[in-house]
């Protein structure tokens, strides 16, 4: 059994993309917030002398994190899908009666060096709530990066 675990190569986090509704929207430089988590409900049972006798934990609700996506800033934001989506929400809002208006389902998809999909995190009802641009400096030759906060309702690793 231990030799079987050694024989499996680890996932290398170098090729990953954001997909929305099945198509690649942007290449990512980093992602954080891929936390699949449940709330923990704790109960205590007390004995006749009033002291805690037993502590039990139960699975509570699923928690949905915000995803933080870092990418290279596009040269023209008017032609960029993420900026278009963000600006659409900023100008029109999200209709309360239409849950599919600007909320979208998508995935963070990881690939190996041969471009084979090795992992997939699916999210539901996501929308960009913030886009932050890196600090700019005349002393830098680094590419400009953007951090996109994607607010989601659920996250699941399916592969």
Topology, please?
Elements: H1 2-6, E1 15-20, E2 23-27, E3 30-32, E4 37-46, E5 52-63, E6 66-72, H2 81-92, E7 104-111, E8 117-133, E9 145-151, E10 154-157
Antiparallel strand pairs: 1-2, 1-7, 3-6, 4-5, 6-9, 7-8, 8-9, 8-10
Structure description:
- The protein has about 160 residues and is mainly beta.
- Helices cover about 10% and strands about 50% of the residues.
- The protein is built from 2 helices and 10 strands.
- The strands form 2 sheets. Strands 1, 2, 3, 6, 7, 8, 9 and 10 form an 8-stranded antiparallel β-sheet that branches. Strands 4-5 form a two-stranded antiparallel ribbon.
- A hairpin with a 5-residue loop joins strand 4 and strand 5.
- The radius of gyration is 21 Å and the shape is extended.
- The mean pLDDT is about 85.
Supply the key terms:
159 residues, mainly beta, eight-stranded antiparallel sheet, 10 strands, 11% helix, CHP02241
Strand content: over 45%
Unreliable parts: none
Mean pLDDT: 87
Radius of gyration: 21 Å
Question: How far apart are the first and last residues' alpha carbons, in Å?
Answer: 22 Å
Number of helices: 2
The sequence of SSEs as H and E is: HEEEEEEHEEEE
Largest sheet: 8 strands, antiparallel
Described by the principal axes of the CA atoms, the overall outline is extended
Find the structural class using helix and strand composition: mainly beta
Q: Quick one: how many beta strands?
A: 10
Helical residue percent band: 10-25%
Pfam family, one: Phage_T4_gp19
Organism: Cellulomonas humilata
Protein name: Phage tail-like protein
InterPro entries: CHP02241, Phage_T4_Gp19
């Amino acid at each position: 059994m231990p030799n079987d675990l050694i024989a499996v190569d680890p996932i290398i986090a170098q090729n990953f993309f954001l997909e929305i509704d099945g198509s690649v929207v942007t290449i990512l430089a980093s992602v954080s917030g891929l936390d699949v988590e449940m709330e923990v409900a704790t109960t205590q049972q007390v004995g006749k002398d009033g002291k805690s006798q037993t502590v039990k934990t139960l699975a509570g609700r699923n928690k949905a994190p915000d995803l933080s996506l870092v990418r290279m800033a596009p040269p023209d934001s008017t032609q960029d899908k993420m900026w278009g989506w963000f600006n659409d929400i900023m100008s029109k809002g999200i209709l309360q009666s239409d849950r599919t208006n600007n909320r979208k389902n998508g995935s963070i998809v990881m690939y190996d060096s041969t471009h084979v999909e090795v992992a997939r995190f699916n999210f539901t009802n996501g929308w960009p709530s913030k886009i932050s641009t890196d600090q700019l400096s005349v002393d830098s030759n680094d590419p400009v990066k953007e951090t996109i906060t994607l607010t989601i309702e659920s996250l699941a690793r399916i592969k």
